[in-house]
Amino acid sequence: MTSDLDDLQGLGFVLYRSTARAGLDGSAMQDILRTARHRNQSLGLTGCLHHEDGLFFQWLEGPADGLRKVVASLMDDDRHCDFEILDQGALDHRRFQDWRMRFSDRDRASLMDWFARSDSSTVHRGDYAGGVVAFMMGLDL
Ligand SMILES: Cc1cc2nc3c(=O)[nH]c(=O)nc-3n(C[C@H](O)[C@H](O)[C@H](O)COP(=O)(O)O)c2cc1C
């Protein structure tokens, strides 16, 4: 269930969407992932980042304190804009236990194609956030 990160204790998650800065290239992407994985390891965070058609979708999970720190950094990061939280709240168990930050992009898998192919048995009508997580969890990289 969605709840504010400020009130959260224990394990939580954040799912957001943002717009990548124009001209962000492969080496900038590698920089982002290097920093992300390093810091996530020290804060005990795991998750998945998907990049497609100039958009980022990221699921971050872990201790609430660490999540709050990284979300504050993300909102201040000019490598992306239009930061919009799709869902956030408490979590019973991690979805990406083994990933300091899993990464995928359109070359590997397309979220838009996945949505276009999905029917009501995989994505509940209107549950955009649920669809994004289901896509990420189904990635076979
Ligand atoms: C799309 C995107 C995803 C990012 N993912 C993470 C992440 O998972 N963990 C993280 O610590 N930083 C991530 N970063 C980098 C942070 O925005 C920030 O630069 C970094 O955590 C250092 O924060 P600081 O400058 O406040 O110390 C990401 C940046 C972008 C643009």
UniProtKB/TrEMBL annotation:
Q: Where is the BLUF domain?
A: 11-102
- Pfam families attached here? BLUF
> What lineage does UniProt assign to this protein's organism?
Bacteria, Pseudomonadati, Pseudomonadota, Alphaproteobacteria, Rhodobacterales
In its UniProt entry, the species of origin is given as Paracoccus haeundaensis
Query: Which GO terms of the molecular function aspect are on file?
Result: blue light photoreceptor activity; FAD binding
Under which name does UniProt file this protein?
BLUF domain-containing protein
